[in-house]
Each structure stands twice: as structure tokens, then as C-alpha cells.
Amino acid sequence: MELPTLTRPAPARPPIRFDRNELAGAFGDLGTDLPLLIGVIAASGVDSAGVLILFGLMQVFSGLWYRMPMPVQPLKAFAALVIAQKIPGRIIFGGGLAIGVSMFLLSVTGLIDALARLVPKPVVRGIQFGLALQLATLALKEYVPAYGVPGFALAAVAFVVTVALLGNRRWPAALVVIALGVAYALVFRLDLATAQRAIGLHLPSWHIPQTADILTGAVLLALPQIPLSLGNSVLATRQIAADYFPERNLTVRKISFTYSLMNLVSPFFGGFPVCHGSGGMVGHYAFGARTGGSVVIYGGLFLVLGLFFSQGFQQVVQIFPLPILGVLLLFEALTLATLLRDMSGRPADWLVALLVGLLCAGLPYGYLVGLVVGTAVYYAMQRGWVGLGK
What we know:
By secondary structure, the chain is mainly α.
């Protein structure tokens, strides 16, 4: 008699690895996060210990919770407003709590699921493409040219190394490029006196956001951020997870729930508001990460900076060469842009994705405009109200 074949179900919580590929992947989002955190600390005067320690803790939380490369990023629109308008910490923390409550309500009521059903895949791909355009522009216009001719030479070497080693599991590209950047910093940019003054143990302090600060932060900071968060942090991140880890069946409700949970905790300890992000996951994955280990390692880096180097954070991290960060950022952007390939067989979907990407990258509140216009154009095409059709 033939015995039935027993199949072992996939583990509900996959293992976390800590190997050289996870270490390499940990640097995949550094070019996005580091300049924003430096800018926010400088513009607002918030305590860098709280910002860095909470940022690191949220990375560790996300890596352990998802057990996949689901990193945490500073809220980009939020950060841009803080840097441009020099908004003080109390309003930052109030706005962070406001966006945490908003995302929590969207999650528990199921409204986030309704939004996910409404927004079609070409619009999500367009949002990712718009982010790719913004990251590539930042890399090529600001980071790579930062040091003039030596910077271009350093970036060229890093680019060649990355192309040669991309996808190599034995010699991960990001580790070699980061080692190149560290060597350059030690030889040409290190100031030992500055580094010594930065060393010392510091812990985050307790904050209680006041009602007036929560309301001000909601209007001034949270409202402009929500469209970007819905498009990139929730919908686009869910799509990336489906692309890379289809067996996990990650839902938008789970992503929005952890998004909200982080921002319901961080403001009370001086943390800057954070989100998940499709670009961050792509960056970690592109440089070798396949588990939450990369995100835990990345969080550990910021915990060390916050606990022991926070009082000289701006000076210490600025020794690392910007052209190296630019190359890492450029490859994150290119990987994001290649996701458009699954639109290539459908001209109407391709057009919608390109339209949304250009709107997101080129307009104020572009993610809101792209989300609304792209969705409207998509359904108009489906009904034959505008050209091309299916």
C-alpha cells in the first residue's frame, strides 16, 4: 500500500540570518536615511540621542516582527518640512503622534484595505517609479558631485565595483563599497579631536506631546505626509513584498498597523516619526538581504551611534564620503525603476505608470496628485472614456 506523502508547511516565522549578505544589505538604505536625520537634527534642535536610539529600536522591531528586509525610514515629506521651516521638536512629536493615530484608525477600521482594492497596480508601479526618479536625481545632482573631481573619481570606482559584484553572495557589493568609503574617510576626512569629543553615553528623554502641538503637527506636518505614506509606505511596500516574498502574503493592514504602532511610541521618547518604505526594502534586497537580519544590523548601527556618539553625530557621520552614498542610492533607484518591466506588455498600464511617476517626482504634493490622477485615468481607460483602452 502506498503511504501518503507528508509535506512540511512553510514556517510561520521564517528564521533570521546574520551573515555577510545580511550585513551588506543593511547598508542599502543608508543614503536615504542619513542625510534626512542629519538635516532634521540640525534644523529642529531635537536631542540627537532620542532620534537615533528610537530610529535604531524601530529597525530592530521591524526586523524581528517581519523577519524580512522591511526597514524603517524617516517620514520624507515630514522631514522636508521640518528642515525647510525649522519646526521645533514639540510640534514634530505632536505631528508624529497625530500620524500614528491616523494610520491606526485606517488599519483597525479596514479603510486601508478598501484603498488598496481601489488603487490599481499600474498606479503603485508609478509611485515606485516616481520615487526612483527622485532618488536618482538626489544621487546624481547632490551626492556624487559633492567633492568635485576626487568625488567623481571615488564614485566611478564605487560604481564599477558595484556593477562587477552586484548579486555576488560571496563578495557582497555593498560591503566592498562601504569599505572603500571607510578607507577614504580614515585617510582624508577623519578628525580625531572631533571624534573624541563625541564619545559618551546618552539616553533618550521622556516627552508628553500637548494637545495644541498635536493639532498643529497634524495640520502642518501629518496632512502633507499622508498621501506619500499611503502610496509608498503602504501600497508600494506591499507590492514589493509580493514581488520578492510572495509566500509571505503580506497585507496592507499589517504594514499600516506596524507603521502606526511605531509612531504611537516614538514621540514619547523623542523619536522622529517613521514609516516603512518600498525603496528601503528594494535597497536592502538589492545588496543581498533576504531576512530581517539586515534590518536588525542596521538598527544596531544607529543604536550605537545614539548611545555613544549622539552628541557629535553630525560631525562624526559627515566624514563618510557622500559620493559613496550617492552610488548606493543610485542603485536603489535603478532597482526600483526596473520594477516597471511587468507593465511593458500592456501599453495602457505602462502609460499610467509613467504618468504617475512623472507627477510624483515633479510636482508639489506629487504623490497625492499622482495617486488621484493615475487612479482616475486608469479607470477611465478601462471604461473606454479615454484612448488606448486595455
